[in-house]
């Protein structure tokens, strides 16, 4: 494999077919669904292996978190999109390759510039100071690339979601809060969530076959507080409740509707369908996706 710096390939709506037929789409979706299977019925607090690469990824995310503390928001007239975010982002832009080189095996160091692009794309946009599901997808793509170069392995599955992705979410929430980031391409009350999607998919998988907790329970604040440390889905609900005021049915209408679905496996299947339709098949999201040698725009071999 000759590694390359990934670039945008989807510049017009008609290019979307190229994306859906690409090796990148198949690999990305395969990665999401493999992790979905892996976390079914498992709590965040269950026992699983934590490899050295996972530890290094947690250190990397810890560094991003520390930089937020070192870059306080500035005084400015507008409430949203604090410009200190650009200072924070510039540090990541400068250090990304050095950070990524700590998690990539030495014999694959040529892949670092390619993989680092996905990390830089995963934390929001420094021009618009916004964050959305396309940035989240870039982080999943980053993890997918680390699997492809052998940095992460099959037995890292639970740690990828429960340790690495969960830590990523906590850093993103801190960015969103600290710099008052705008939701990118938000559909307002008609979207699932202003910022994230994947933790709802994997979080609903965790609940499959749960003996007592049903979808109707996640709108109950008592249930959320009691079980949030075990379930990603409830951590998401807790964050929404902290950030939004007013009745849940009004500010999070889609999630309110989901709470009426009878089983978690139905919720999980429905969210996967919705993710494809609302994120992966939407031009405004995918026009920013980058393709290289690891996630290739080439069509899947028939």
From TrEMBL:
Protein name per Swiss-Prot or TrEMBL: Serine/threonine-protein phosphatase 2A activator
Family label: Belongs to the PTPA-type PPIase family.
Biological function: PPIases accelerate the folding of proteins. It catalyzes the cis-trans isomerization of proline imidic peptide bonds in oligopeptides. Acts as a regulatory subunit for serine/threonine-protein phosphatase 2A (PP2A). Modulates PP2A activity or substrate specificity, probably by inducing a conformational change in the catalytic subunit, a proposed direct target of the PPIase. Can reactivate inactive phosphatase PP2A-phosphatase methylesterase complexes (PP2A(i)) in presence of ATP and Mg(2+).
Catalytically driven reaction(s): [protein]-peptidylproline (omega=180) = [protein]-peptidylproline (omega=0)
Main location: cytoplasm
Keyword Nucleotide-binding: yes
One Pfam family recorded for the sequence: PTPA
EC number, UniProt record: 5.2.1.8
Lineage: Eukaryota, Metazoa, Chordata, Craniata, Vertebrata
Alphabetized UniProt keyword annotations: Acetylation, ATP-binding, Cytoplasm, Isomerase, Magnesium, Metal-binding, Nucleotide-binding, Nucleus, Rotamase
Record keyword Cytoplasm present: yes
Organism encoding this protein: Seriola lalandi dorsalis
GO biological process: mitotic spindle organization
Any single Gene Ontology cellular-component annotation: nucleus
Location in the cell: Cytoplasm; Nucleus
GO MF: ATP binding; metal ion binding; peptidyl-prolyl cis-trans isomerase activity; protein tyrosine phosphatase activator activity
């Amino acid at each position: 494999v000759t590694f390359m710096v990934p670039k945008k390939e989807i510049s017009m709506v008609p290019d979307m077919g190229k994306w859906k037929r690409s090796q990148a789409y198949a690999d990305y979706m395969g990665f999401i669904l493999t992790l979905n299977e892996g976390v079914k019925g498992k709590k965040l607090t269950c026992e699983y292996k934590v490899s050295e690469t996972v530890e290094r990824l947690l250190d990397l995310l810890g560094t991003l978190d520390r930089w937020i503390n070192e870059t306080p928001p500035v005084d400015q007239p507008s409430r949203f999109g604090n410009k200190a975010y650009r200072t924070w982002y510039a540090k990541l832009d400068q250090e990304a390759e050095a950070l990524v080189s700590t998690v990539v095996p030495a014999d694959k160091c040529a892949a670092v510039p390619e993989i680092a692009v996905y990390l830089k794309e995963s934390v929001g946009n420094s021009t618009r100071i916004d964050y959305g599901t396309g940035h989240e997808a870039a982080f999943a793509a980053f993890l997918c690339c680390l699997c492809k170069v052998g940095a992460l392995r099959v037995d890292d599955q639970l740690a990828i979601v429960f340790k690495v992705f969960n830590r990523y979410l906590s850093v993103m929430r801190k960015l969103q809060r600290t710099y008052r980031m705008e939701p990118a391409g938000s559909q307002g009350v008609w979207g699932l969530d202003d910022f994230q999607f994947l933790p709802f998919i994997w979080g609903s998988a965790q609940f499959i076959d749960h003996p007592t907790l049903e979808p109707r329970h996640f709108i109950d604040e008592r249930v959320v507080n009691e079980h949030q440390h075990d379930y990603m889905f409830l951590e998401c609900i807790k964050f929404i409740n902290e950030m939004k005021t007013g009745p849940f049915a009004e500010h999070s209408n889609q999630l309110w509707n989901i709470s009426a679905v009878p089983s978690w496996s139905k919720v999980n299947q429905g969210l996967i369908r919705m993710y494809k339709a609302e994120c992966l098949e939407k031009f405004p999201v995918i026009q920013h996706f980058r393709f290289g040698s690891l996630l290739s725009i080439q069509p899947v071999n028939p």
